[in-house]
């Protein structure tokens, strides 16, 4: 069922949240609680996996725990492609948000139950599926609150994305503190409560605040399509279940092999996207040039996210095992370091936004901003060589080194991430605008699948690891500066 765009806008109260549509209040707090639950769980999960059994952990080795955490993050980003399709073709974004939130809450409840690896796997499946449904659909619903030429639109998205950072900022301080001070499962239960609050907020306010926004699927399946699609889904699901039932008990599919399979998919899927879009008959010659311009930017994004995402895995382990956790008379919990990234974003983002506006046409081009992102990300690892070089691995280092590392990578993130999302929409072929956003999200997924492999090289090689990864990022950033004239030429007038 399709619905006239104007009727949707007329059904949405256009005032009620700081001059924005009332529905932005609903989606802001839904996203806040969803991110609170996700980042609270994420900040605690790595410690839960490798902590000793007697402390309530799973007793995994740190390499395995870090690899699982990386693959987990990769699957979250990969699955968003499926969630967006379900929203567009079957459920509509509002119902997709609700069902996604329910699955996320159930996933956190599973983690709150002391069931070892079994409940961890169940939890991961539920949270990956739930996040795939909720995250892209919530952002889509925000877009439906505004007309295409509404001057409040960009500001509304900025307010919405602040919910992400506020949720990520508060979560480790609450969930992490409870989990590491009292009991891991109690911490995970707080994450579940957070998602429950988000669902209550959404259900209680959506009818009056959202109107018809997100109610209908914009491109629904026809009757014939439904039969074909659901048949294929059913057959594929049955085959997958049979394969898992055969390969897991016989140890053909081991944890390490599963991680390797996801790593390969993290490389193959983006490659397939590029090939499919480039050779499509729907892509013009000008659009093909823009796809070529996007390739070095995408590679740069993968390297950047590979460093940034290690803040929740490698640096989280470093905070626990290599860092002084008493500083200036204050006892610090390792999970608290996960608040640094969103804290610095909240502080620095307005400054950089003002700077770009102030510079106007003199601001750096997209490839140059990408190069800044890579250079700062590389520096965030290079500075970590210093404490590793001047101290042996048995000596605890000042927490200020981690603070500096997180600070540098956030500057890089703010140079690269918002620009990357924007240029993805600008360089996208007309026939593949939605797929280009999926491709941008896959840069993070690819990075985390790569992390699942390279993070194993860290043990006892701190200087070489931090230096090697950091220098690769800086060199790639410098290379992007050198290639920027060619990239800009291929962008065909896009800035």
From TrEMBL:
GO terms for cellular component: plasma membrane. One of its GO terms (biological process) is tripeptide transmembrane transport. Keywords: Cell membrane, Membrane, Transmembrane, Transmembrane helix, Transport. Its main location: membrane. It is found in: Cell membrane. GO terms for molecular function: dipeptide transmembrane transporter activity; peptide:proton symporter activity; tripeptide transmembrane transporter activity. It comes from the Bacteria. Belongs to the major facilitator superfamily. Proton-dependent oligopeptide transporter (POT/PTR) (TC 2.A.17) family. This is Peptide MFS transporter. It comes from Heyndrickxia ginsengihumi. The lineage of its organism: Bacteria, Bacillati, Bacillota, Bacilli, Bacillales.
